[in-house]
């Protein structure tokens, strides 16, 4: 009897992939804080995850280019055209890191539960 791990693990593997991609985007924003004309970008995590879950192939939507990062609207625009606001980006990065850790914790709990079921405990 085979086990379908995609059903057993739920949404968490896709969520981790998406959080990792969002981390790259937010890190790029922070790295380009002083680049004139750089436009801060982000992704809509919830919408992209829904799209990924609805996709029959189960692949991450960002891999196909169908969920492009959106530009972030600044609260206070800079004169050089740069839309990165360091405080906003750092807060988003920290929240994303906490959410990543939460998904890892849930995934770890799922694996422990599967191991107990396999061992008959």
Please give a structural write-up.
There is one protein chain. With 121 residues, this protein is mainly alpha-helical. The protein has one domain (12-113). 60% of the residues lie in helices and 3% in strands. It has helices at 5-9, 12-31, 45-54, 61-64, 86-119; strands at 41-42, 70-71. It has a two-stranded antiparallel ribbon with strand order 1-2. Helix 2 packs antiparallel against helix 3 (45-54) and helix 2 (12-31) packs antiparallel against helix 5 (86-119). The radius of gyration is 18 Å and the shape is elongated. The protein starts with a helix and ends with a helix.
- Largest beta-sheet characterization: 2 strands, antiparallel
Tally of extended strands?
2
Note the run of SSEs as H and E: HHEHHEH
What is the residue-averaged pLDDT?
84
Shape: elongated
- Overall structural domain count: 1
Beta fraction of the residues?
A: under 5%
Strand order, main sheet: write it out: 1-2
**Radius of gyration, rounded?**
18 Å
Tell me the structural class.
Answer: mainly alpha
- Poorly predicted tracts of residues: none
């Amino acid at each position: 009897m085979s086990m379908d791990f995609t059903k057993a693990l739920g949404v968490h593997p896709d969520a981790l992939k998406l959080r990792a991609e969002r981390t790259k985007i937010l890190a790029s924003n922070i790295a380009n804080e002083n680049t004139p004309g750089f436009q801060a970008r982000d992704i809509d995590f919830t919408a992209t995850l829904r799209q990924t879950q609805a996709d029959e192939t189960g692949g991450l939507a960002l891999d196909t280019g169908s969920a492009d990062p959106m530009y972030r609207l600044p609260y206070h625009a800079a004169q050089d055209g740069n839309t990165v606001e360091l405080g906003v980006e750092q807060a988003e990065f920290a929240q994303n890191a906490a959410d990543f850790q939460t998904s890892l914790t849930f995934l770890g709990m799922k694996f422990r539960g599967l191991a107990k079921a396999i061992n008959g405990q």
